[in-house]
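Thread: Modeling a multi-component assembly for a lab meeting

Hi all, long-time lurker, first post. My supervisor asked me to bring a structural picture of a complex we are working on to next week's group meeting, and I have zero experience with this. I have the sequence lines for every component (324 residues in total). Could someone generate the structure of the whole assembly? Inputs are pasted exactly as I received them:
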Amino acid sequence: MTILLNGESFQTDGPLSVSRLLDGLDIDPRRVAVEHNRTVLKKAAYGITVVREGDEVEVVNFVGGG
Amino acid sequence: MADSPLVIAGRPFRSRLIVGTGKYPSNAIMVRAHEASGAEMVTVAVRRVELNRSRESLLDHIDTERYFLLPNTAGCYTADDAVRAARLGREAGLSNWVKLEVIGDEKTLFPDNEALVEATRILVGEGFVVLPYTNDDPVTCRKLEDAGAAAVMPLGAPIGSGLGVQNPNNIGLIQEAAGVPVIVDAGVGTASDAAVAMELGIDGVLMNTGIAGADDPVAMAEAMKLAVRAGRLAHLAGRIPRKRYATASSPLEGVVGS
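Re: Modeling a multi-component assembly
Sure thing. I ran the full set together rather than chain by chain. Output:
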């Protein structure tokens, strides 16, 4: 399936949970925040939130800033 | 002389200096600069994870037991985007504090006051502790406070400009009127700028480029720590009035030969 990940088209097998998506991307879930179709997810929801064809996902983390 | 802590939304900070995490020559220098600054609160930005990049995280270099993280909404130009960034920052950092920025102009990075007040109202309604970066305008600061801001953070000068406090009179007026802490945020270029800001009676100073961009960020961080403390003490001590002519420090009587 194709999703929009951080503003870019991204191919992955699916549907799959946000946890599985992060795992596949080698991203530590403790260090990021995830938005699924414009809704910010609680970390506890990563395992039960299902990403489907055409969904929009944003994965952000902290970087240096003032 | 003992000083009271800086208290924002009920949380006390011994240091009145808040520092950024951007633009350091290296993470190692940032770590040492943070230590030298004595700051207890550091700002961070929220950005998309770069996929297929190194797994190293900024948080590998910030001891969150020691430093309180203040996520910002830098780079946001609308209230909607700033609210969205704040919500993401809350999940990434697990605190409900946000340094709210809604920028209105690319060249000056001056805030969009209208959108800033709107975003403040929305985020306060969602339980955030909102610290808005604002113009040095007493009316806007009053509106932000009315909207529930936990502090107001007027700029001393444009972000990264190093020009120092451009309108000390306005900063003084904001301080006099405010019922919440006033933090001068942005524009500090060197230690005297920080001292001048604190001498105006404000509660704290936030800076990033002034330290990170110095030739020796660690030394400048220490200079800023001392300047913030010196300016604070001078304010508490109560300076002498300015006069146009001299007043002798030594007795006028008993001068030899008179």
